[in-house]
Automatic annotation (TrEMBL):
Coiled coil: none annotated. Residues 2-234 form the ABC transporter domain. PROSITE patterns: ABC_TRANSPORTER_1, ABC_TRANSPORTER_2. Belongs to the ABC transporter superfamily. SUPFAM superfamilies: P-loop containing nucleoside triphosphate hydrolases. InterPro entries: AAA+_ATPase, ABC_branched_ATPase_LivF/BraG, ABC_transporter-like_ATP-bd, ABC_transporter-like_CS, BCAA_Transport_ATP-bd_LivF, P-loop_NTPase. This is ABC transporter ATP-binding protein. GO terms for molecular function: ATP binding. The lineage of its organism: Bacteria, Pseudomonadati, Pseudomonadota, Alphaproteobacteria, Rhodospirillales. Gene3D superfamilies: P-loop containing nucleotide triphosphate hydrolases.
């Protein structure tokens, strides 16, 4: 479904990703793990069209999207739930959700999708008119996830959805990501919480200094001794 083929991405002259290749098949939950600064966020930003490629290509459902503008990538069916949540703080919860659907013209369906999301995120419904910046961290994360879903994506990119959340909310967030996949949406998730990420995914890639150094099933990576030592605190 998604294929990154040898992509290099630079900030100025300095490469943050070097010839990264990865694939995500339809229906999969794939995770990208790695230390701080490994290039995980850069990978997602390159897929979303927020960063240009220096080399390599990105294709989604057979179409080239490398170098495409963010709204084009969104229009193809890829939603990005960014690191640090990044809701629009001055806008209300409702307006944030509407922003997620800004490319859609099926307004009646947008409304019913929003109603359906409220079953999963009842707190958002209670706070519809509240400015998003005044929500708690956990509520903002739920809003960021719900906003991404409002585009009816085929693939969702999650960037560290558990970051900065209390332990009970971390669990809840991972449960929501798993539900989203179970309902048929493909997921590529970046996580620093390597144990949880490997345990819940189908396949995983390990990034070190901008390069893919390991990939395999989540279970295989969990069983890998060098990964256990470096990333799982074994
Ligand atoms: N806007 C930027 N300008 C310059 N360098 C950046 C920028 N964003 C990230 N980097 C660098 O690129 C590398 C990868 O960063 P990032 O993708 O954010 O890593 P991760 O998400 O895995 O923590 C790091 O060395 C980081 O310092
Ligand atoms: Mg990051």
């Amino acid at each position: 479904m998604l294929k990154l083929d040898g992509i290099t991405v630079c900030y100025g002259q300095i490469p943050a990703l070097r010839r990264v290749s990865l694939t995500v098949e339809e229906g999969e939950l794939v995770t990208l793990i790695g230390a701080n600064g490994a290039g995980k966020t850069t990978t997602l930003r390159a897929i979303s069209g927020l960063l240009p490629l220096t080399e390599g290509s990105i294709t989604f459902r057979g179409q080239s999207i490398g170098g495409a503008a963010p709204r084009v990538v969104l229009g193809q069916g890829i939603a990005h739930c960014p690191e640090g949540r990044r809701v629009f703080p001055q806008l209300s919860v409702r307006e944030n959700l509407e922003m997620g659907a800004y490319l859609r013209r099926d307004h009646a369906a947008v409304k019913s999708d929003m109603e359906r999301l409220f079953h999963r995120f009842p707190r958002l419904q209670e706070r519809l008119q509240q400015a998003a910046g005044t929500l708690s961290g956990g509520e903002q994360q739920m809003l960021a996830i719900a906003r991404a879903l409002m585009s009816r994506p085929k693939l969702v990119l999650f960037d560290e959805p558990s970051l900065g959340l209390a332990p009970n909310l971390v669990e809840q967030t991972f449960a929501i990501v798993s539900d989203i996949r179970r309902e048929g949406t493909t997921v590529l998730m970046v996580e620093q919480n390597a144990y949880a990420a490997l345990d819940m995914c189908d396949r995983a890639y390990l990034l070190e200094s901008g390069q893919v150094v390991q990939h395999g099933t989540g279970q295989a990576l969990l069983a890998n001794e060098s990964i256990q030592k470096a990333y799982l605190g074994a």
